[in-house]
Amino acid sequence: MKIQSIHIRNFRKLKNCHIDFGEKETVFVGANNSGKTSAISAIVWFLKSNEKFTLKEFTATNWALIDELGDKWLAKDPVDDTLLDSHQWDDIVPSLDIWIDVADGEQYKVNHLIPSLSTWDGKKVGVRGQYVPKDVTILYSAYKEAKGKVLALQATEEWKKASSPNLFPINPYFQDRSAIFRLTSRRITPPMSVANEAA
Description:
The protein is α+β, with helices and mostly antiparallel strands. The protein has two domains: 1-58 and 95-132 and 181-199, P-loop containing nucleotide triphosphate hydrolases (Rossmann fold), CATH 3.40.50; 59-92 and 135-179, no CATH class. The protein is 30% helix and 21% strand. It has helices at residues 36-47, 62-75, 136-154, 157-161, 171-174, 194-198, and strands at residues 2-11, 14-20, 95-101, 124-133, 181-187. It has a five-stranded antiparallel β-sheet, covered by helices on one side. The chain starts with a strand and ends with a helix.
């Protein structure tokens, strides 16, 4: 079995990172704080140790997108069902696409990654792992409650005396990540070339 390539999205500083693996070895070279350790962590955690995930693994710039989505939830009551579609999170949550060459007889090595190998044709296998909300409706309810508490706090004299600090209303509920997010995996079709995908 050999990993051909991976594509990491929204994991720490790695917003959109494609890595092709060499035939014998692959070496990551880069400046400090450029994402080398994050790339290795993404590979290991998605494939083996997913209990290590925390919300710190979300790309920091995506928190603004999460708050924007939360504001859309609260703009209309009751909320529009399309905004509660889990696919609204596809471009926000950490994900890893991995392409693996699996030799005949090695299927057992990837059974834990892939829901079904019933249609496996003996060629490379693609799997997408995503760290997704378990239930967007529950997440919406919790966000609404947390946002209400934030708005109440912002109306107090103490908040004004503290120079009106920025508050992130979704964070308090996100502290218990196990109640909110889970790792999913599914087979994916062969990718376009990186050049075509970027076009």
